[in-house]
Design a protein that fits this description.
The protein has 392 residues and is of the alpha/beta class. Helix 1 runs antiparallel to helix 9, helix 3 runs parallel beside helix 9 and helix 4 packs parallel to helix 6. It folds into two domains: 126 residues, Alpha-Beta Complex (Aspartate Aminotransferase, domain 1); 244 residues, 3-Layer(aba) Sandwich (Aspartate Aminotransferase, domain 2), CATH 3.40.640. It binds pyridoxal-5'-phosphate (PLP).
């Protein structure tokens, strides 16, 4: 089936799975109690639904349900994970470590902490966007108290060796946070085997609703202590006050369960579609470059630079396919992506990049259509480039 415009921006957000919508609906109109109301059935039913959601999320990562704190999404989870433990950690040391390829929702809270006096090291990735355990180890000092490295990159899909990094941190008594926003439900994750103390996720990245996410907070070996970002009614064991959005938690839980139960089969399907897209474009379009790791990457991610064209212009020339480009189109002079720059990709090639994010609802017809649209758009734009004309 071909749905035009074709949606290939599933790293930005995903469509809510109709099965998830169905599961959420009764919690708007019938089971609408406040999960914190302990004196009547409306509250008990809501509370039971939240418990189930928590169990479903926990099961995906090998956690205990009570280790899952409901938040509004990964931005909040990251902020809580990075700022929450510091009042307890400051007696031990003042050094934090992260990587240059992280999402802004990790980099910006950490940069704020650096302005407030924390010592921050930002480690470079390799040219594939991979953050090596050696690079993290080289950055550690006696003062390091927390390391944050994402599980999968949101632009180039590169998978980091988080198990090795987690082990390194645990051997040194350092807390390890991973932003698993793009990885949750897409690749295997286990907080015990991967030595993770804090893990962030967001439901709208795995076919759940927007506005809800979670933070896994380890309870044992070590027990992670957190100060909340905001105070109030003491919900979520005091870590996150505010009435829980019950329908959203129901949706997040069911979306998590579906993602995990279908993960292996769905990954194989997406990988085949991704390879078809890459091969199809490679056969029709010369002078392209694959950004990110050739094999250690999310199955649904393809990030390509098209030499001698601007990503923004290319996107505009292919309006029937929704993708993202490697430059931020908000500014008058678009900034090339900080991730691609951190990987050592030159500015022109970073600006000439497109991110294709395939997803659960992507069809083979849509992939074939995209190959046609991209190749025609590049063929139209390249003759307008003086550099291309002097090159051919
Ligand atoms: C890796 C990563 N971290 C954090 C976020 C922020 O997620 P949210 O907007 O749901 O808070 C995103 C979303 O793009 C992401 O890709």
């Amino acid at each position: 089936m071909l749905n035009i415009p074709v949606y290939l921006d599933n790293h930005a957000t995903t469509r809510v799975d109709p099965r998830v919508v169905e599961a959420m609906l009764p919690y708007f109109t019938t089971i609408y109690g406040n999960a914190a109301s302990i004196s009547h059935k409306f509250g008990w039913d809501a509370s039971e639904a939240v418990d189930r959601g928590r169990e479903q999320v926990a099961a995906v990562i090998g956690a205990e349900p009570r280790e899952i704190i409901v938040t509004s999404g990964a931005t909040e989870s990251n902020n809580l994970a990075l700022k929450g433990p510091l009042s307890y950690l400051k007696r031990k040391g003042n050094h934090l470590v992260t990587a240059a390829t992280e999402h802004k929702a990790v980099l910006d809270p950490l940069k704020r902490l650096a302005r407030e006096g924390w010592d921050l090291s930002i480690v470079n990735s390799d040219p594939h966007g991979l953050v090596s355990v050696e690079a993290i180890e080289a950055a550690l000092t006696e003062q390091t108290v927390l390391v944050s490295v994402m599980a999968a990159n949101n632009e180039v899909g590169t998978l980091n060796p988080i198990r090795e990094i987690g082990k390194l941190c645990h051997d040194r008594g350092i807390l390890f946070h991973t932003d698993a926003t793009q990885a949750f439900g897409k690749i295997p994750l286990n907080v015990i085997d991967d030595h993770i103390d804090l893990l962030s996720l967001s439901a709208h990245k795995f076919y759940g609703p927007k506005g809800v996410g979670a933070l896994y907070v380890r309870r044992r070996d070590p027990q992670v202590r957190l100060s909340p970002l905001f105070d109030g009614g003491g919900h979520e064991r005091g870590f996150r006050s505010g009435t829980i959005a019950v329908p959203l938690v129901v949706g997040m839980g069911y979306a998590a369960e579906l993602a995990e139960s279908e993960r292996v089969e769905e990954s194989a399907r997406l990988l085949a579609l991704r390879e078809r897209l890459y091969t199809g474009i490679s056969e029709k379009v010369p002078a392209i470059q694959l950004n990110g790791h050739p094999s250690l990457r999310l199955p649904a991610n393809l990030n390509l630079s098209f030499a001698y064209v601007d990503g923004e212009a290319l996107m505009m020339a292919m309006r029937d396919v929704a993708v993202s480009s490697g430059s931020a189109c908000t500014a008058a002079d678009p900034e090339p992506s900080h991730v691609l720059i951190a990987m050592g990709i030159d500015e022109d090639m970073a600006r000439a990049s497109l991110r294709f994010g395939l997803g659960r609802f992507t069809t083979i017809e849509e992939i074939d259509f995209t190959i046609e649209v991209v190749s025609k758009a590049v063929a139209k734009l390249r003759p307008l480039s003086a550099a291309w004309n002097s090159n051919v």
